[in-house]
Fold:
Amino acid sequence: MPLVSPVPSGVRFQRRGLMLVLSSPSGAGKTTISRRLLALEPEVVMSVSVTTRPPRPGEIDGVDYFFVDDATFTRMVEHGELLEHALVYGHRYGTPRRAVEEALAAGRDVLFDIDWQGAQQLREAAADDVVTVFILAPSLAALEERLRRRAQDSEAVVRYRLAQVAADVTHWAEYEYVIVNADLEASVAAVRAILAAERLKRRRQPYLSEFVQQFRVAIPQAK
Structure:
């Protein structure tokens, strides 16, 4: 019979989840990276934002976004139902609070595809849970090509988004990690490496304090 149990009775080996924030100028590739990450990482769930913008072709309410009117969005803000909210490209976006908090407590990671304003608010609300990554396109020309290639927005919207790039990229230094998305698979691998390291941080393994107690038990010396 062993002198001590290898795992203290009652210890739950469940880490706390984290909030992984991906931000970028429109067209830099964060949405594509997000989709690849979700396909490869079963412990990651997507935070589905609330927005007042109309759906794009193929978008599904409750899957891509929760599409609401301005009055509903305002009510959610007033009732404290959003972790963060911001005005982006003329429309309002926000993160529902309850689903995120439940996922973190269950040890699941929540992925956020949000802008720098939302990232700032998340850091203020829950700094210990937030990991921030800024995605850059390899060049302005590549970014413009991506915006036009996806053909989801009018020419006026494309021009508006391009005009916003200069303002958006000024916030890159606020992020813990920065990735230049010149190669999709390399960028996805980099995000996965960040995720793996962040999961191992001590504060995300609350069971450790109890677990290490087994090593503090004095073992009788042989006679």
